[in-house]
Amino acid sequence: MAKPIVAIVGRPNVGKSTFFNRIAGKRISIVEDKPGVTRDRIYTEAEWLNNTFTMIDTGGIEPDTQDIILSQMRRQAEIAIETADVIVFMVDGREGLTASDEDVANMLRRTKKPVLLVVNKIDTKDLPSSFYDFYQLGLGEPIPISSVNSLGLGDLLDEIIAKFPEDRDEIYEDDTIKVAVIGKPNVGKSSIINTILGEERVIVSDIAGTTRDAIDTPFTHEEDKYVFIDTAGIRRKSRIHENIEKYSVIRSFTAVDRADVCLLVIDASEGVTEQDTKIAGYAHEQGKSTIIVVNKWDVVEKDTHTMNQYIKDIKDKLSFMLYAPILFVSAKTKQRMYQILETIKFVSNQHAMRVQTGMLNDIIGEATLLNQPPSDKGKRLKIYYATQVSVRPPTFIIFINDRELTHFSYTRYLENKIREAFGFEGTPIWIQYREKGGDE
Predict the structure, then answer these.
(1) Which residues are GTP 1-binding (predicted)?
(2) pLDDT by residue (tens digit) across 199-239?
């Protein structure tokens, strides 16, 4: 199930980043008392009353300072309208209603998305007379808050989660493998999907997509059911050009949330870029299976070392997901395209694999004999036993004597030993520690 997306829209210096940081619980956005200081859109996961959602701070969508403020706000609003489930339109209660506010309100009124009009910088219980001017925007009851003083934030969060779509369940059967095709624009995501769907043995369903996205493509292959969640490109009606890559990151995040397996498509002529790293990192953190697909391999000039050098470069830049298989393909020439579906099915099974508790503890016991657990001030970490508690991703709890004695490097060592014994190719492994007799 995908997490709802909440986009914060408003002109510079109305307090979007301060609000964002308050809700996120940590200082993520740059906050400075100067218009347009946030130079990049920031994303974070937030939670309120057991509702988790992705929040987007759109403060710096257009970094070109020569562009006029209104143009920046239009782009913010366009991206929010395209991607968000709920839009928070923030205005400045001290400065009052402006022409820019009215222009964006006109755009937001035409969308079918729920919009909450939030008047920031209301620092007292007595509302200023200018507050009532915001009713003219035609976006319903303005909600007064103070991000700096944390006033009214709980009421606003209540309103936000009340606007989330009620039915976010997938329409697909449990045994359907959901595949997100993610990556930068113009790397060949759609071509890869079209090539796979063009295979004679693939039957494409004509049923509707999910409520979230009309470009889901369900199909069957050798009795296995799949759905491609395509993140390729921007809808043609959109006028966003400068921010196409940033926009694609939101689409990719949404697709990752819904997926079992992620195909991270990389352009062979470019290699791994910063955008690829961001998207891959999100898939890893969400515990998704991932396959790295290097497309356009046919255009690369090769010698006997080319592929090995590419693999080394990918592993260097995506060192946090060494478990991910790497495929070198060409959607144009169909080179190795047959391997994609085979690998999707394989890593999906690995993602859902369970191991027996007895076998797991044999491996853990052997690992501790080969390499003793760490110690501190004469006290050594003791591992009592381990068990797998869930799948997708495979999650293990290891019962120990003292969590403070655990160390990242030893956790990685245990993960490697588990992988050597059982595989788990293509999937992250989550290891949690629990003190025996205590809470997690």
Answers:
(1) 10-17, 57-61, 120-123
(2) 544 554 544 333 333 367 888 888 899 988 866 533 333 44
First-to-last alpha carbon distance for the chain, in angstroms, is: 25
| Binding-site residue ranges for GTP | 10-17, 57-61, 120-123, 183-190, 230-234, 295-298
Task: State whether CATH 3.40.718.10 applies to domain 357-435.
Answer: no
- Do 5-162 and 357-435 share a fold? no
Binding site, annotated residues: 10-17, 57-61, 120-123, 183-190, 230-234, 295-298
Which CATH architecture does the domain made up of 5-162 adopt? 3-Layer(aba) Sandwich (3.40)
Q: Which of 333, 345, 300 is nearest to 195 (CA)?
A: 333
pLDDT tens digits along 338-393: 999 999 999 999 999 999 999 999 999 999 999 999 998 889 999 999 999 999 99
C-alpha span between 204 and 221 (Å, rounded): 9
Look up the pTM and report it.
0.68
